[in-house]
Amino acid sequence: METGEAPQAGRKVSTWLVPAIGYTVSWPRFGGIRTLPFAQMGDHLRTMEWGWLVFAVALELGSFFLDAWRWRELLRPQSLRLTGGGAIRLCRTVRQ
């Protein structure tokens, strides 16, 4: 392909086809919910160590805050200091 040549259009997939395939593949799995042993699940929930659940939820929420902080640091406008005391802004953020 040369530089000035437009990319060739590929065959487009219908907008309903992808969700339909996903629903078809996942339907047997969702149908299995009816066969769950709810009494046994209740026993497990009563004997579960809730401290581990609280610990896991805290780790998950902590990871969200760390990701938010990381993205804030990555998207913060940076300045390049010049020897003459001026600064050049490398990027701008859009604020509403």
Detailed description of the structure:
- This protein is mainly α.
- It contains 3 helices and 2 strands.
- Strands 1-2 form a two-stranded antiparallel sheet.
- The two termini are 41 Å apart.
- The mean pLDDT is 78.
Helix content: 40-55%
Overall pLDDT: 78
**Which secondary-structure class do the elements indicate?**
mainly alpha
Order of helices and strands: HHHEE
Instruction: Evaluate the radius of gyration.
Output: 26 Å
DSSP strand (E) fraction?
A: 5-15%
Question: Which features characterize this protein?
Answer:
mainly alpha, two-stranded antiparallel sheet
Secondary structure blueprint with pairings:
Blueprint: H1 17-31, H2 38-47, H3 50-75, E1 79-81, E2 87-89
Antiparallel strand pairs: 1-2
A few lines on this structure:
Helices cover 53% and strands 6% of the residues. The protein contains three helices and two strands, in the order αααββ.
